[in-house]
Structures are given as C-alpha cells and as structure tokens.
Give the backbone structure.
Amino acid sequence: MVLGLFGFFIGRASQQIHDRALKLDILNREVAEQKASFAQRFTALDRSIKNFHII
C-alpha cells in the first residue's frame, strides 16, 4: 500500500515535469520564430534606410 502511494506521487511528479518541459519547448519555438521575424524586419528596414541615404 505504501509503495503504491509513493509510486502514485512519483508518477504524478514525473508527469508534471514532462508537461512543463512540453510547455517550455512550445514557448522556445515561439521565441525563435519571433526572433527570426524581427531579424527579417530589421534587415528590410536597414536596406530601406541605406537606399534612402543613397537617394
């Protein structure tokens, strides 16, 4: 009975850790996508400013 109870708590803690890791993975992907988007915008803006200075 005691081993079953400890197994339940250990299993629940393990599942919570797994769920948190999954959420963090999703968050990291979103941050990487935003970073790429901002880098593209920055590059386009930089090109536009350089073209404006040439004019």
